[in-house]
Each structure stands twice: as structure tokens, then as C-alpha cells.
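To whoever is covering the structure queue this week,

Two jobs came back overnight. Logging them here so there's a record in the thread.

Job A:
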Amino acid sequence: MMGIWTETVERKAAIIHTQLAAARHLALANGASEDAVAAPYLKLLRTLYSEEFPFAQLTDSSDLVARFKGPAVDVHDPTVSIVISLFSDIREQIRGIAKSVVGLATDKRMVWPSQLDPHLSGVAHGSLLVGISVSPPASDTTKGHQYEIEGASAQVFESVRTAVRSLSLVARYVSESGVSESIREAFPDPALRDTVMLAAKRLAPTGRRGIDSVSFVSPDQQHEKIKLLTPKLRLALAHELLAPVKVSTEGTFEGFLREIDLDARRFEIRSVSGVGAIRCVYGPMHDRTVKAALDARIRVAGRYDSIEGQRPRFMAVNTLEVLAMPSVQLNLPDDEV
């Protein structure tokens, strides 16, 4: 079955073919050169099938398509090292989104193996186009499966897929002057919003590897102008992520410290009574404590954002207290998320 992006290209091609046939008919009736009249239409068709068609096919068969532009990839044969590096970046960020979504969705312990990987659904030239698809969880935990989430419901998996696809939305709300407040409407869940914005910032180019811009498209995205992420927009995202909690609601919560991201200064506090899980951002003063407190029971206090003013989802930590250290800090159980 043809996807909507491919259908759009086929409709464009049909229009050009109709115009080409009409032009040839007029040329023949008036004694003009059919080849000369046909040349611009054939050029349009070549461009359509060499550039737009591969992009459309990738988009229809992928959950997310990334298009990298810049001198390092604007060639027919980019180096293997730059391609591997870009693939690795995408994999790590999709993995991060998936882990965060699952961790925030349930306190149930799940198998999430280290070999978790998105599937490469295709690559095409035209800068560098990379199509990525997220495979459903396997029904068992046999080594080698890509997505093994024991006990994960279809709803949780669809949440992962939706979050990955939502990377295509972030650039719409970012300018060199900052991030628009309207992004809150596109991402009403503040924890998911922070997770996806962080992934977008990390995938946006620094300008130091020969990549000038990257854009993301998902198959359910409307056919509108695609927004680019550039080094300047990466800086705008980085600035926003330093102080992402804009509300003044305060609270104190207890739970277990999980999924630390030392670079981004993020962690999750899980098994919070009446809440479940909360994503947290903290300042440099808590670096040493957080680094040593994985799996510890902690108490955090600070300002938090919630979904529609109800369940807390994302907190800017002001104070952090370790209530009980885990009996075994390393060698976590195999069934840990």
C-alpha cells in the first residue's frame, strides 16, 4: 500500500506527465521540436524521482527520517566514519527517549537489554537521508531481539513510537532568540517535552563535523515546510534546557533514584507514592550526591510542572536528601529497566 508521502510525489508526477503530453501535442501541431518542448518537463521528472521519491519512500516506511546537510555528506560517497557517527547519535537518542518513556510510564520492572536498537529502514542520497523504525517488543527475552520489553503493553510501546516521531515537531518552536511557549501545547507532558527537546539538542549539529543542519520528518507529519535544526538553534535549545521548569508550584517527594544522565543533569525518581515517576533536573551543587546515589531512596523538593495542573511530571530540584542507600550499588538485577 502506497504511503501518503509517496502518493503526493506520484500526484506531482502525474501532473507533469499530463503537462508533458499537452506540450508535445502542441509542438507537433505547430511544427515545433518535441524534444525541445519536452526537455524542461523531463528535467522536472528526473529531479522528482531522484530527490523527492527516495525521501517519500523512506518517510512512508519509517517512524522518523533524518536529513543531514553539510559538506561532510553533500557528496555521493560520504566517509564511513561520518555515517557511522551519525547513526550512533540517532541510536543513542532514540534509545534514551524509549527508556525515559517506559520508565515514566510504569514502575513495573522490565527487561531492556543493552543491545536495544532502532531498525534502519533505509538510506538515500540527497545530502544524507536516514530512515529509522521502532520495532514492537519481542514476546520473549531471547538474546538478539532488538526491542525486548517484557510485560510492556501495546499502549506503552505506542507511546515510545509517538515520542520518537515527535522529534520532527521540535524545530517548529525554536528560533535563534529562544524556544516558543507554544511548544507546551504540542508537548503537554513536561517530562516528555524535556526528553524530546534534549534529544533534539543533542542531534542538532555543532558545526564542527561538516554538518550544517539536520531536519526530522515523520510519516504522519503534514506536507508543510520542513524546519531545520542548525548550530545556532542547538544553542537556543541548550539555553532553554538549563532552566526548563517555568512554573512556581512547589512540592516534596520520596522515591528511588533511577536513570541518571550526568551530562544533562537529569534523573528519574520512581515509586513515588500516588504519583509513580517524576523526571528531575538538578544543579551542579548536587553532582556528587546524584552520582553516588543510583538506586538509593531519596527525598527531593523544588518546583515542579505537571500534566494539566494535576500529576507532577517534571521537577527542578532545589534540595536533595538521601534517605537510604541501596545494599548493592553495582550489579543491578537483570530485570532492571
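Job B:
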Amino acid sequence: VKPVLKQSNKILSLKKTDDSIKYTPLESQVVKLKEEYPGVLLAVEVGYKYRFFGEDAVIASRTLRIAHWVDHNFTVASIPVHRLQVHLHRLVDAGYKVGVVCQTETAALKSAGPNKSAPFQRELKQLYTKSTFFDGFGVDQDENGSGPSHSNYLMTIIEENRGKNKTSELVTMAIAVNPATGDVIYDVFEDGFMRSELETRMLHIEPCELLLPFKLSKPTEKIIGMVTSPKTTSPKERARIERIPENETISTDYNTALSFLTEFYAHGNQDNSESGKSAYRVFFVCSKALAATAQYLRQFRLDHSIKLTKYFINFSARGHMLLNGNTMTNLEIYRNSIDNSYKGSLLSILDKTVSPFGKRLLKKWVGRPLINVDQLKIRTDALEELVEADDYLKKDILNFLKHLPDIERDLCRIQYGRSSPKELLGTLEALVKISGALDPRKFRFNSRILTKIIDTLPTARHAQDFKDCLNQNAIGEKNCKHNLFISENQWPDIPMHKQVCGFSTDTHIRAYVIQLKVKLKLVRSQLEEYLEQIKVDVNIPTLRFVDVSGIEYLLEVKNSMASKVPIEWVKMSATKAVSRFHTRFVSEKLKELELSRALLDIAAENAYQDFLRTVSDRYEVFRDVVQSLAELDCLLSLADTALRPDYVRPVFSDHVQIKVKNGRHPMVEQFTTTDYIPNDINFDTDEYRTMILTGPNMGGKSSYIRQVALISIMGQIGSYVPAESAELGILDAVYTRMGAMDNALSGESTFMVELHETSDIMKQATPRSLVILDELGRGTSTHDGMAIAYAVLHRFITKIQSITLFVTHYPSLGGLAKEYPESTTTGHMSFIEEDVNDIPSVIFLYKMVPGISLKSYGLNVARIAGLPKKILAKAKIKSEEME
């Protein structure tokens, strides 16, 4: 009889069904660990391999494509120790929560302790999921490194119903944490039945893992399912979902959450800055989500990532333009609409960054355009100075940035105590290099941003003090931590540096390390003395110590002299030429040696962790330096964009307007094989603020309206724009309603989705917004659709008064331009019609001109699509009858 292994939604549990099963000591440990950590796929260290047991082994075998077999009571599979990180990465990508169980004692410690006859002690050392795994791998980049992939954000969503209607108006709390970089985004917002606000935040953040209550409202569950559903068959695209247990009150009870947060932030958080004080408000408005997140991250030992409130960002901060979920998708801000990949998006067009931290910051800039004229002027002043700067200066900076490691991620690894000595040294060397890289005498700029960046970099010089504490020659050795720190005997000035660094472990941990080193040296000395003595005793002058296959201090004797070997010597190995032995004295000393080494490993690790904590005390200083470099990388990227042909710096004003001469679609022109036809844009709240746009199908209407929105967004990012000239007012938001799609998950038709989205836009749009409505009303009968389109457009013209682009195939709506000539105009995409006696053939000119187009020329599209001529002829007759 074998244990029953149960799998449900990738939550693995192991239960014994028969007390008569006789487990091995190791299996008993595994059963206990599985009971203690339900839902975790365990990799258990056994000697030089990591083993999976039971259903875990079957899953590992299927996911990793390795063999599995039956051993005693369980199916098992194994992987070598040195391949652990690779296999963990694949398991985590597949959506599993993986635990690494390590042996906590060596053979030497075990033999010297009271645990001699028991199995090796083991305990869970690390837990990993999609958002918490970043050991040894870059983050936020796709497989070929060309652009950002789905981020490492963990997003917690908590709902509160503060009204009578349990399914519509809700208050939602959201916390998003990127443990790899320490970024934290929070928000509290009201949402409607469509959950458009939640969708917007999820599309911006792109979480790879969600922490959710045991139960959410149906509309919320549906929108989460829709947003997180993979666009491809790759498991990497699927966000992992972790449910908070139903009996856990931290996400449901305000007092429990606040009590937890009070204790959590009680020590070590003295951020009195304005940003810090502002972030503290999240404790009260977003307490349940924050507490649930902190508790969840604590099991991964990553809770320190949300202790520094200085880096909390409010998603709804008023300093940025709002791009809702529909706008992000329709305008292809982060991903294209064809295969949902990075290529062809607005981000890909602007992204020429060379550092990982620069890529991450640019993505934030693109998704959160500025709405403050002064901030935009400061950013574009810096951009213009870089554009005009000498090429050799820019190349020097780019070459410097290109060769930096991902310091932002590495600093977080130091904070979590996960950085290896080699990584630590690399990070410190990079920071030292940064502190003196850009000499102010050579790289002197006039703009405020660039001056601040150059002045911030020297603050990284403290890294030199930490670097000077390390023995660089020890890096790369097998047990480098034993000799990692320079002793006071070798470096008389170390007390001064310890004072600077705050590193004072010599008084306790390091003293113990030195004591163990002395003992190791003594044992080795005794063995060498023993060798000289035994040579005389057995009269074998050529006797010597050798190490073979990991076995140390073997007494090697030529076989021709083997008769002189005492009978009590134990033969360990032999060849045709020599034999190798251990004596009782050597065996005893080897045990002492192994014990001292094991104790030294522990002491050296403690000293190293203490040093990492000391370095992490400077985390904020170092991170601010990295943020400055990221900003410099982003500005250089935008400067590269600005140097493209016919790109211009926009002129900004507080007055709401979009006046562009010969503007172009920034993405389409990059991929088209022919010359792009530019178009003017002319909107002004004191003149024409509404355009009714008509024209034939495939005539370029969609490209034009996207061009208007993208140029406005690019301008407020701080980028130059594709045009001859551009005068832009500051928009507070861009809203779009494009495309025809139903929402099968919500049981809603195409027309219902259209109206829901239009309703949301009408509630949120202001006179400073840009609104694009594409073919509203097409999802129902012509009369009803036209009536609704008329009423909505009339509302925007007379009440909302935002800059509005209304694309339609209802020519009669042009009457509103005559009714409100002071604010509304008409336009259509020009064309030439041929073969009027047959099926009309239309030549598209892709130029926007004034006036209404009375025909849509759908038959021309049908002809291009290849419909049979008989069908086209019959359709033409019917069309003429209906006209």
C-alpha cells in the first residue's frame, strides 16, 4: 500500500492511509515536511542530489523531463546539486510553489553530536514562486534580452463592500511589490461592474503572481481571469494565483491588519521625508492588502522589500496622465495587438536603454506621462542638451552604462542576505566605478536633471570602504568565506575602516573564525609531524600524504615496499604501482579536521551575513545612485529617438490644444515599406475641439486617430515627436473606445461592452481629456446605433467638452458640426473612386481633409478580400436599392 497523493490546482498534499506502512527515516522526514508545508513542491537535499518524492516527483519528471522511479514507499526523481537553480527556474515558470529543503548538518557535525544514529537534520531553507524567484537570473527581460517581459510583481487585491449593492460599487485595495527591485505600488479605488479600474492597474503593472482572498466577487474573478489568461501557450505567460486561507483574518479584519502592521513597522523605519509621511497613509487606507502582502513575503524572507516606505508609489498620484486599460491595449503602449509581444509597441520604439534598471524606469515613464508643465520643461531641457551634446560624450556614458551589472537587483539580494561573495564584490566594484566615472569637469551640463544626476553619483564612494574590507584574492576559492575578510594583522588600518563601514564583527564572530583557523592549522601541523615520525618508524623514506577522490591524507606506499606496512593500517585504495592507507591517528585527526571545517563554515557564514547587513544599511544611498543612472539611461534613450529624421521638440502650454504639422504614427512609419503620408492635427478648446471623422474602410482613419493620441502621449513622456512642429496642451487623460469584441467570460455582447466602456469614459473625462470613440453604435440596429451615437456625441460637445475624435460610418452625424460650428468640425480620409459603373475601386490617399464622406465603400473591401463576383454584383444591386 502506498501513500495517497492528492493534487488539486497544483496544491500538493500527502496523507498516510495506513499506519502499517514502514517508512525509512528519510521518508518520515519528507512526510512531516509535506504536512508542515502543504501546497509546496519540495526539493529535498540528499547527499549530492536534490530529490522529489511522491506526486512531487511525478510533476518534476513531467516538467523537467527527467526520469522518475519507485524507491521504497515513494516515487522519486532527482537532480544534481549544481543544476538546482536551472530546474527551480523551470518549475517556478510552470506556476509551482517550490521549497528547497537542505541538510543543516555535515557528516562531521553529525558524528560529533547527539544525532549520530539519526538521519541528517533537514529544514526548509527557501521558498520560491514566480514573483519571488530571482536567484542567478536576470529579471524583467525577455528571453533574447531585447525588451521587458512580464514583470516580477506580486499583486495583492482586497475588496471591501461599503454600499448596499454587493456586486457593483466596491472599494478595492491593491498592493504590488517587485521583490527583485524593491518597488512598491499601492492604490485604493472605487470600481464599477466592468472592473475597468482594476483592469487598468493590472495592465500597467503586469503582475506575474496574484495574492487573492479565498473569495472575491464574480465580476472581479472574471476580469482577473481575463487579464491573466495567457496570450500564448507558454506557461510563462500565465500569472500564478495564491489564495489567502479562508480562516485567515488579516485580509478581512481591519484591527488585525493594523496590529500586524504596527508590529511590522515598529523598528528600523525612520523615514521622515514627505514621501515617507505620504506613504504611511497606506497603512490606514490600504492596511488589509499591505498586511496580507507582508505576511506572505515573510515566509520567503523577503518582507524587507516593503519596509522602506520611501519607495512607495501611489498609482493614482495626480502628477501623471491616466492611461486606462483600453487605452493601453488599443494604442499598443507596452505590447502590440497582433501577438501581444513587445515588438511594435510604443515602448519598443522609445526603448534604446542599455541597462536593466534603465529599461524598468523607461517603462514607468511610458505608462505614466507627466501632466506638470514645469516638470515636462525640465525633462525636455535635459533631453535637448543631450541631443546637442558631442557624440563622444554620449558614447562614453552609454559604454559605461552598458557594462554595469543589474545593481538595482543586486542591492536587493544583498538586503535579503542572498548575495554570493562574487556578486557582492561585483556590486561594490560597480558602485566604486560609478562614484568616479563621470567627472563633473568633463560631464558638466546646464539642465537641472543632468546636474543632479552627476552630483549624486559620488555618494556611492562609501562602497570603497566596504570593498577594502574584503580579501579579493579569496574570491573564487572553494571556501572563500573562510578568508574573505582582511585581518587586522594584514591591514593595520582596518579599525578605521570598520568605523566608517560600521562593521565590527571581529569582537565576536570573527574572533571565533580566527580561533577555528588556528585549530585547523594545528591539526595540519600535527599530521605533518606524524608523517615524519612514521617514516622513521616503518623505515619507508618515500612515504608521503596524497589526496585522492576527495579522501585526504592518504599514506601512499610503493607496492614494492608494502611488506613494511604495519598490519593495523587500513588500506583505502590501490593501483598497480602504489597502495594507500589510513592509520588510527590519521583517522582521528581527519575527524577533528572535518569538525573544525564544519564549524568554520558556520562561523564564516555568520560573519558574512553580518557584513551583508552592514552593507544593506547603505541601501537607500546606493539605490538613489542607481535611480539617477536609470534616469540618465532613459534620457539618452529618448535623445536617440529625438535624432530620428523629422522628429521635433513639442512646445507645451497650459492651454488645452493639439496642433501638429505633418504628424506621423510613430510605430507604423517604422515598419511600413513605403513613405508614410503625414497629416496635420488641429484641436483647440477655444476653437475646434471635436471632430467627426468619416471615410472609406481601410482609408487610414484608425491610423490617424491613434497618431493623435500617441503624439500627445509621447510629448508628455518628454519625448520628441514625429512631426514638423507640435504645440501641445497638457492632457490629464487619454480615453479610447475602439475595436469590436464581446466579453464571453462576463456573458456580455459586443454592444454591451461598447456601452459599458463609453459610460465609464463619460463619467471620467474632463475638458482636459482626449477622447477617441471609434464606430460607436455599430453593434446594434442602424437606427438604434445612430441614435445612441448622436446622443453620446451631443453630450461630449455640449457638456463634457473634451477634445473628441468621433469616428463613424453614419454621415448624418455630420449635422452636429452645423449645429455647433464654433466647436465641432468634420473630416474624412481622402480617396479617389474609379470604375463607377462596376464595383467601385477606391485608391486610398491617406490624407485627412475637411468634410463628410457619404460612402464607406464596403464593397471595395469585399472585392479586395476576394468575395466571388456574383456575390459582389448582387450586393451592389441591393446597396443601390437601400440608398
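Note for Job B: The chain has five domains: 4-128, 154-317, 373-502+617-636, 513-603, 647-882.

Please reply-all if you pick these up so we don't duplicate work.
Q.
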